[in-house]
Amino acid sequence: MSSGPPPIPKKKIPRWVWFLTAGGLLLMLALYGAVFGGYFWIMDRAKDEIASANPDFEMLYISNAGKIKVRHKPTGKEFLVDGTAMKKHIPLHTLAIKPVDKLPDWLRLPDTQPGVRGRWESELDRDALRSSLDELLLDRKFILEEMRAGTMTACEPHALQCVTITLGENPAIGGSWYSAELKEAP
After folding, report:
1. Are residues 57 and 126 in the same domain?
2. Do 179 and 103 reside in the same domain of the chain?
């Protein structure tokens, strides 16, 4: 009496297949670890570089879109800065965007006269006037951030104030003029 056909022996998976599978999984884990570890290492390095170039700011985070959230330590104000536009140094004039209505008296040089449209006129030539303005800004701890044809922008990092000064020449008086706009962080 036969009870039926003999059972079919189970086919075993060869050991080499198990070794390849385990090796592949380990390789994938190592690659994922390297990618994520590298990402966090690069972010830490970027934060360290930016923090060393901007001691008045604390780095909060860097988004994948290239935006950097920073806190200004002296005032506690938080800003979102475009990380692609800045190299290492945070351009303060992009943070100070609220115009100050009444300009402080220190912005008027002693040897100038009030002119038209809120400008001050001087008998100095343009280079001498610029030199006097440079000294004035340095005395107030302002740092020159940007200089274009007839415009200079300087910022005071602790108070987050920036002044934009426009220079021009006035042949009628044989001298120069300047106007100033002061802005602060909101």
Report:
1. no
2. yes
Q: Residue by residue, what is the 3-state secondary structure of 90-129?
A: CCHHHCCCEECCCCCHHHCCCCCEECHHHCEEECCCHHHH
Distance CA 144, CA 106 (A): 17
C-alpha span between 88 and 91 (Å, rounded)? 9
Residues 112-147: tens digit of each pLDDT: 777 655 677 777 777 777 888 888 888 888 888 778
Indicate whether this model's pTM tops 0.85.
Answer: no
In a domain, 72, yes or no: yes
Our count of domains for the chain comes to 2
Tell me if 112 sits within 8 A of 95, measured CB to CB.
no
Do 124 and 79 share a structural domain? Answer: no
Q: pLDDT tens across 20-33, in order?
A: 999 999 999 999 99
3-class DSSP assignment, residue 184: strand
Distances (CA, A) of 59 to 63, 85, 127, 142: 12, 16, 39, 23
